[in-house]
Write a structure and sequence with these properties.
Number of helices: 16
Helix content: 10-25%
Structural class: alpha+beta
Largest sheet: 9 strands, antiparallel
Strand content: 15-25%
Number of strands: 40
CATH class of the largest domain: Mainly Beta
Number of domains: 4
CATH topology of the largest domain: Jelly Rolls
Distance between the termini: 31 Å
Low-confidence stretches: 1-15, 39-47, 140-145, 159-164, 190-202, 344-393, 839-871
Shape: elongated
Oligomer: single chain
Bound molecules: zinc ion
CATH architecture of the largest domain: Sandwich
């Protein structure tokens, strides 16, 4: 899972640090895996490995030191090279290159690497962390074919690495010379370095003192690794690698290139750290200073590389141990010196819960004065939970660092939980979208409270009810919701019956759900990507941008698809309908309604089937993908201060990439098929209670749009739905559709929050839109009894309806194949169909058995019809 980014607090110093990026490597999202080959490779098959979400507890490896609440436990990235160990010089890297990190920044990664103990004779496997990595520039050469700047290290201290060594600063694929002055330690061994001890790192007393030997067996379990980890090296332990990157720092060398990277390795076995050195772009390669590294200056702005390289073939006695692990990648804004934190922190020893409480209080006092005060309390409490969490007794904790989550901070106990909402509405003060998870609530009956300053007006909370769920799928409304004083509170009359509870402003609809639903739709024979999309329906991506919590939001795919019966595509224009949702990221009820409509359109309902014959639906479920993912209430992440529903003008799109991706796709998609008019455009939203009093559509009443029969059908099916004059002149999606998509009728449809309605209400309302279209465009007034789809003829479509539902008894309707209204679908209905099939005389005089029916039907069909509705192969 890609965890987003948050502000955190260094407990020891009280300094607030902005996290630009954080990832627990439980999925490969955002990462690119590259294999850089090697020499003497036997064939072209890539037998190296990169496993994201690798559960390292199976090897008895403890949780990585910088794991945070919400991380997937004992899960990280496993890299392995030389599998099965046939050639040398094999190298792999996982590269996060979406974010081009710039300015001073600090990369921190937890790394674990083994050597083959006790029988191995040493290891040439190295793990590494690199900043400024640009995979397109990466060299496919030996030793090591990576770029950027950072560190690689090996694990056993044997120095048996043939021109490489156990610790190496790396710059643009070159190992830096010890003689270059960039190392902090003068003697860490590297071969061919005149004037230095060329034996091994274990002889360096500094390193031996920093990293004492220990029993491997005692540090791991289940690993079948025994023996002693040599002093002076970093095998079989978590090492936090920190790169303090300053791309513009002037150097101390003779060259003019700027930029430095300070490299620190912290051993969690010993608790000690080594500043390996500071890579300096201004140091010019000296071919005579020892091993000629041919080092070049390197651009320090770019991606992050996590790498593993093996300089020779591994002859591992147990190759399953030959891997490196990476967990908890974090990038901080600015230079974050890990030693400064250590030096000032007597509390690196994990305290007992009671002392943790004291520590927490102290930290909280420090923190209150900091600039991001709003965020602090929650973050301190998150740190508290890290320290004290134990499996036996879950601590109360609230967090929202997941897809669609939104919570600024919280405080309180199991009786009273005080919430602070995120104020990220583009033009109104107060909170609005809220969605978080709480743990430790089993048997608790808390009263939640929040300031009633609500974006849109606190009156909107008068009739509002919050929702909760134990499984994040099935939602219930809180029983007590109301305003009191300055607060809005909600609670239940009985205690929670589960430890984990999700709480939200309304039934959430995450970005991930839209992505999954799109995949489901595209798997149907009745949907396909639009001309703007790839095979997965992806029409573009959101731009990288920071959200209101200073989190760098990854690029999110934007989706579209076309629903129709492709067998009836022809040069004759079909009706066109454009359906959209998700523009206002917190308006989830609109998206549930949209989903109900889409599900019906691809269903087996005969009315949907007939619609698909004559109508094509262009559908766009993720108008604001990044905003929904990041938990904003309304705006995109790219433009937090603007209402995205005013940006639907191509002249505005240079700085609104997500709206542009959707808008340009709509223009191209509707133009890609015959016909120049869009019959209907609907954008599904939700709204706080309004003067209209219920669900409603903004529609151009005065221009006659509301007279459209399908709209009147909808009002008849859903008497609670209102119509409101649409007068807006700005660039809303509806006006875009009206002016640029040539939409005959354009509607902005609003589902009202706070009406205590279950999700089934929205699903069924979505279906009603489909039925309203059908009733207008397909259905005839007085169909024949055997005209089951009521489209004005009795044909093979009706026979297939009868066949599909043959045997129904007691619940059949006309649409299901019941011609004689006896609530069954049986032979008598078939006889009516036969009799009504055009002028064709009955082919059988008796009621056929089901097995004979297929034959009879076949006979009839060969006599009669053309233009059957076939299922496309897919
Ligand atoms: Zn809206």
């Amino acid at each position: 899972m890609l965890i987003l980014v948050w502000l955190c607090v260094t407990a020891s110093t009280g300094a607030a640090q902005t996290v630009l990026f954080s990832d627990d490597l439980s999925t490969s999202a955002g990462w690119r895996y590259s294999h850089f080959g090697g020499t003497n490779k036997p064939d072209s098959s890539d037998t190296s490995d990169a496993d994201f979400g690798f559960n390292y507890s199976q090897f008895g490896i403890p949780e990585a030191p910088n794991s945070a609440p919400g991380d997937v436990g004992t899960s990280g990235l496993r890299l392995a090279v030389n599998v099965p160990g046939l050639w040398r010089g094999d190298q792999v890297a996982a590269v996060y290159e979406d974010a081009a990190f710039a300015g001073p920044y600090t990369v921190q990664v937890d790394v674990w690497a083994n050597w083959v103990a006790p029988s191995g004779s040493g290891s040439t496997e190295h793990v590494g962390v690199l900043a400024g990595f640009q995979v397109d520039d990466a060299q496919n050469t030996f030793s090591p074919g990576q770029n950027g700047a950072g560190v690689i290290y090996s694990t056993d201290g044997d120095a048996s690495c043939g021109g490489e060594c156990d610790f190496a600063l790396v710059k643009d694929g070159a190992h830096l010379d010890l003689a270059s002055g960039q190392y902090g330690e003068s003697d860490i061994h590297s071969e061919n370095q005149p004037g230095y001890n060329n034996t091994n790192a274990n002889d360096n007393v500094d390193l031996e003192n920093l990293f004492p030997s220990f029993s491997i067996e005692s540090a791991t379990s289940n690993m079948n690794a025994t023996g002693t980890q040599p002093a002076g090296a970093l095998g079989f332990q978590w090492v936090t690698v920190t790169l303090e990157v300053d791309p513009t720092a002037p150097g101390s060398g003779a060259g003019s290139a700027v930029g430095t990277v300070r490299v620190t390795l912290e051993s969690h076995q010993s608790g000690n750290s080594l500043v390996l050195g500071t890579i300096n772009n201004s140091v010019i390669n000296d071919p005579n200073d020892g091993f000629n590294a041919e080092e070049q200056s390197v651009n320090l702005e770019g991606g992050i590389g996590l790498m593993m390289t093996d300089l020779y073939a591994s002859a591992a006695s147990d190759s399953s141990l030959a891997f490196g692990l990476f967990d908890n990648v974090r990038v901080y804004q600015g230079l974050v010196d890990p030693l400064a934190a250590q030096a000032q922190s007597p509390a690196v020893v994990v305290p007992e819960p009671t002392s943790a409480t004291i520590l927490l209080s102290a930290v909280a006092l420090v923190v209150v004065s900091l600039r991001r005060t709003r965020s602090m309390l929650m973050l301190v409490l998150l740190a508290f939970a890290t320290i004290t969490a134990s499996p036996a007794q879950a601590q109360l904790n609230l967090f929202a660092n997941f897809d669609h989550g939104a919570l600024q901070s919280w405080s309180g106990d199991l009786n009273n939980i005080s919430l602070v909402g995120r104020e990220n509405h583009p033009f109104q003060d107060g909170w609005r979208w809220m969605y978080f998870q709480a743990t430790g609530l089993d048997n608790a009956q808390p009263v939640f409270s929040i300031d009633q300053e609500f974006a849109g007006g606190n009156y909107a909370l008068n009739s509002h009810a919050m929702v909760y769920s134990y499984d994040n799928e099935n939602w219930q409304f809180f029983e007590n919701n109301g305003r009191s004083g300055n607060l809005y509170t909600f609670s239940n009359n009985s205690a929670f019956t589960g430890d984990e509870v999700f709480v939200a402003y309304a039934q959430p609809y995450s970005y991930g759900r839209s992505a999954e639903h799109t995949a489901t739709v595209l798997a149907s024979p009745w949907a396909e990507p639009t001309v703007s999309g790839d095979a997965n329906g992806v029409i573009g991506q959101t731009p990288l941008a920071f959200d209101d919590l200073d989190r760098l939001v990854p690029r999110k795919d934007i989706f579209a698809y076309r629903i129709t019966n492709p067998a009836t595509d022809s040069p004759t224009a079909k009706r066109k309908v454009v359906l959209t949702t998700g523009m206002h990221s917190g308006e989830v009820l609109g998206t549930h309604t949209y989903e109900g409509l889409i599900n019906w359109l691809i269903s087996d309902d005969v009315r949907a089937a007939r619609l698909r014959d004559e109508v094509e639906f262009f559908a766009y479920p993720t108008l604001n993908a990044a905003g929904r993912f990041a938990g904003t209430s309304r705006a995109t992440v790219e433009n937090p201060d603007q209402d995205p529903n005013g940006l639907w003008n191509p002249s505005l799109w240079t700085t609104h990439e997500d709206i542009r991706a959707n808008g340009e796709a709509m223009l191209a998609d509707v133009a890609s098929t015959p016909g120049t008019e869009v019959d209907v455009f609907i954008d599904f939203h939700s709204t706080i209670p309004s003067s209209a009093g219920n669900d409603f559509g903004f529609i151009e009443i005065s221009e006659g749009d509301a007279n459209a029969p399908w709209w009147q059908n909808l009002l008849a099916l859903q008497p609670n739905v209102q119509q409101v004059e649409s007068t807006g002149m700005n660039w809303t999606s509806a006006n875009f559709a009206d002016l640029l998509l040539n939409a005959d009728v354009d509607v902005t449809f609003e589902l009202e929050f706070g009406n205590n309605r279950p999700l089934s209400y929205y699903q069924e309302l979505g279906e009603s839109f489909g039925i309203a279209f059908y009733s207008d465009w397909i259905q005839v007034a007085n169909p024949e009894a055997a005209d089951f789809d009521e489209d004005g003829d009795v044909d093979e479509d009706d026979l297939s309806t009868w066949q599909d539902n043959y045997g129904l008894n007691g619940e059949a309707t006309h649409f299901l194949g019941d011609a004689n209204a006896d609530t069954a679908v049986d032979g008598s209905d078939f006889l009516i169909w036969q009799q009504q099939l055009g002028s064709t005389p009955p082919a059988a005089q008796n009621v056929p058995e089901p097995s004979a029916i297929a034959f009879a039907a076949f006979t009839v069909l060969t006599l009669t019809l053309s233009g059957s509705r076939s299922r496309p192969a897919k």
